[in-house]
Amino acid sequence: QVQLVQSGGGLVQAGGSLRLSCAASGRTLSTYNMVWFRQAPGKDRDFVAHINWSGGSTYYADSVKGRFTISTDNAKNTVYLQMNSLKPEDTAAYYCAARKGNEFYWGQGTQVTVSS
Q1: Which of 23, 32, 40, 61 could form a disulfide with 98, with the two C-beta atoms 3.0–4.6 Å apart?
Q2: Cα separation of 58 and 42, whole Å?
Q3: Which pLDDT tens digit goes with each residue over 38-62?
Q4: Which phi and psi (to 5°) does residue 97 adopt?
Q5: Count of other CB atoms within 10 angstroms of residue 11
Q6: pLDDT tens digits for 4-23?
Q7: What is the rounded distance in angstroms from the CA atom of residue 16 to the CA atom of residue 6?
Q8: 87 contacts 13 by C-beta, under 8 angstroms
Q9: H-helix or E-strand containing 97?
Q10: Are 112 and 92 spatial neighbours (Cβ–Cβ below 8 Å)?
Q11: Rg for the chain (alpha carbons), in Å?
Q12: Three-state secondary structure call for residue 55
């Protein structure tokens, strides 16, 4: 069992930055990969970025590559998503997830709104 609590998000102008946090807890946390997804109204939930707890493996959606950075603070069991150069099309509810194969645990979601 993994518990995820998200924080951060909010309203920002285009070109601005935000940082999302995802505090994780659970006995076997290190065996899960951590993933950020986002879901815009009326659209599917899309992959944004992935990292493992060793920090040696990161992947990004093409739409955010070069603008977003995923990282971990292993001492705090927290995953971050630093979002720079935000665009209106980044507006969505953002979810962190702990993934192991087909097993997922989800955070509660946090809204990011980018105004033009």
Answers
A1: 32
A2: 28
A3: 999 999 999 999 999 876 789 999 9
A4: -145, 145
A5: 12
A6: 999 999 999 999 999 999 99
A7: 20
A8: no
A9: strand 92-100
A10: yes
A11: 13
A12: coil
